[in-house]
Design a protein that fits this description.
The protein is mainly alpha-helical. Helices cover 72% and strands 0% of the residues. It has helices at residues 10-27, 29-36, 38-47, 62-92, 95-100, 106-135, 144-165, 172-189, 201-207, 213-224, 229-253. The chain is globular. It starts with 9 loop residues before the first helix and ends in a 7-residue tail after the last helix.
Length: 260
């Protein structure tokens, strides 16, 4: 990556950095496996534990839950978890420090490094949406704009949270440990495995405030058509608040070089 020839335009610099990062990800079998294969397996494993009777009265079907869960796993593993490893590894290798000495801006460095993981996550979401539509007879989304909005909010949030997570680690290995709380909380509380609609009201109200919940709420509501404009506005407001908070934390505490 240190030999990348930076172009004069921001788009050119991002393209060059993303191309180099994609090459490095392809050489990291652990990151590649976690980003590509885990999100394709976990949703269907979780879907096998769902009972159509438990979803009665919620307006949801097993297919819709599996589909939205699949997209949630893609956001968590293809984007968030993969980027935690990427940012930590590039920091420990002094790549980030060297890049800052050139014409790249801080935001461009973080964005360029994130583009391959974001692209993988988006491709996965499209593939999973088509697969679930065909295999589980989900049907077309009834409110596609909500589903798209959920992805557009969930991706930058996962990118920013990945950068924040590396603040609490000293190595690539410890970065993955630091990522576990976000993964577990999101899987158990944000509706990735168990929809909020089947949770007790008090618990669901608390889980609505978790970082990934708004994105999954919008994605799930986009397919089910059961999401009201009021609930959608609340989800958007919560997601935007988390994004602002995460970006502030990155600007304030993100480390560009290893701790000595």
């Amino acid at each position: 990556m240190s030999t990348v020839t930076m172009m004069t335009t921001p788009a050119g610099r991002l393209r060059a950095l993303a191309r180099a990062e994609l090459t490095l990800i392809g050489r990291s079998k652990g990151v590649l496996f976690s980003a590509v294969f885990v999100p394709l397996v976990l949703p269907f494993s979780a879907g096998m534990s769902l009972d159509e009777k438990a979803l009665k009265g919620t307006g949801l079907s097993v297919g819709v839950v599996v589909l939205s869960s699949a997209m949630g796993f893609s956001l968590l593993f293809a984007v968030y978890s993969a980027l935690v490893s990427v940012y930590a590894a590039r920091r420990e290798e002094l790549v980030l420090k060297r890049l800052r000495t050139g014409e790249l801006r801080d935001a461009e460095i973080l964005t360029g490094a994130a583009l391959p993981s974001v692209a993988i996550g988006l491709v996965q979401c499209v593939v999973l949406a088509v697969a679930c539509t065909v295999a589980l007879d989900v049907g077309a989304p009834r409110a596609l704009h909500y589903a798209v909005l959920g992805l557009l909010l969930g991706i930058p949030l996962c990118v920013a949270l990945a950068a924040v997570t590396t603040v609490f680690s000293r190595s690539v290995e410890s970065a993955q440990v630091a990522a576990m709380p976000m993964l577990l909380v999101s899987m158990l509380g944000s509706g990735t495995v168990v929809p909020l609609e089947v949770m007790p009201d008090t618990l669901a109200s608390v889980c609505e405030l978790l970082p990934l919940t708004p994105a999954l709420t919008l994605i799930r509501g986009g397919w089910s058509g059961e999401l009201t404009a009021y609930d959608a506005l609340g989800a958007v407001a919560t997601a935007v608040a988390w994004i602002i908070l995460a970006v502030f934390a990155v600007r304030r505490w993100f480390r560009w070089e290893p701790r000595r």
